[in-house]
Design goal:
Order of helices and strands: HHHHHHHHHHHHH
Number of domains: 1
Largest sheet: none
Low-confidence stretches: 1-11
Helix content: 55-70%
Distance between the termini: 48 Å
Number of helices: 13
Mean pLDDT: 84
Number of strands: 0
Shape: globular
Oligomer: single chain
Length: 263
């Protein structure tokens, strides 16, 4: 029997070393944003202003503080995926792990941005955080139900929110969230990239399409994931008034051309 003819070369597209270096540096920057920074937003920062607006309302203040933490956790999750993206480039065929990890970066960035969007009013942010918390509790309840354990945290939190007059926002699905959050400042090309990246982690039939020559590369999803994480980090650091933002912005302005291939 004849050997199958490969129409792609898995080693033919490798992420340039300067892009990998930029991602490594970005990971180091995220690491500089510590728990102390997250918990002590300056009074003149957008987060500080949100906290001041609800200073005498425990339920609302808790939602703002929780939103700061949840948004930051998403960025740290994205950072771990970027670190793994760097490592998997040494594999003989890095396509599937690159697509899977890049997709995780897209989503972590989108959810972080969904919570810390500086265009939101304080009440809108509280509603989004409430929705995110309720979703987390419902997912946890589904998970432990497999072990015949019942959790009631979702209903208890919902009752507390109702009593406080807090209406949870409609929480979109991940694909919708990426479309909403990345739809404005992020190009249509990046949104298309995200849709293609879902093939491998979902093991869906369009994996075949994502393996075609025009979609098979690793440099584009790797670079796009890095750009999106960069953008989400800037929004978060700006929201909490991170003291290192000015220095980071200088670095980011220099590295963007490397990540976008425009340098």
């Amino acid at each position: 029997m004849d050997e199958p003819v490969e129409d792609t070369d898995p080693a033919g597209d490798r992420v340039p070393e300067d892009v990998i270096t930029a991602v490594r540096e970005m990971s180091n920057w995220v690491g500089k944003l510590t728990a102390t920074h997250v918990k002590s937003a300056p009074a003149n920062s957008p987060a500080g202003q949100d906290l001041a607006a609800v200073a005498h309302n425990t339920m609302r203040e808790t939602r703002i503080r929780r939103g700061i933490v949840l948004s930051g956790m998403r960025l740290y999750s994205g950072r771990s995926c970027l670190d793994a993206l760097e490592v998997c480039q040494s594999l003989p065929d890095p396509v599937a792990p690159t697509h899977t990890l890049a997709r995780a970066v897209f989503e972590s960035a989108a959810w972080s941005r969904w919570l810390c969007d500086r265009q939101l009013t304080t009440e809108q942010r509280i509603s989004r955080v409430a929705a995110d918390e309720l979703y987390g509790k419902s997912q946890m309840a589904k998970m432990v139900s497999e072990m015949d354990v019942t959790l009631t945290g979702h209903d208890e939190l919902k009752a507390e929110l109702d009593a406080a007059g807090i209406t949870p926002a409609k929480r979109p699905g991940s694909t919708e969230a990426v479309g909403q959050v990345l739809g404005g400042p992020i190009s249509a090309a990046l949104r298309l990239t995200y849709r293609m990246l879902s093939a491998h982690p979902h093991a869906s039939s369009h994996t075949v399409l994502s393996s075609a020559r025009q979609f098979r590369g690793v440099t584009t999803p790797f670079s796009h994931a890095a750009v999106i994480h960069l953008w989400a980090f800037h929004e978060y650091a700006s929201y909490i008034g991170w003291e290192g933002l000015d220095e980071w912005t200088v670095w980011a302005d220099n590295v963007k051309p490397v990540l976008t291939g425009s340098g």
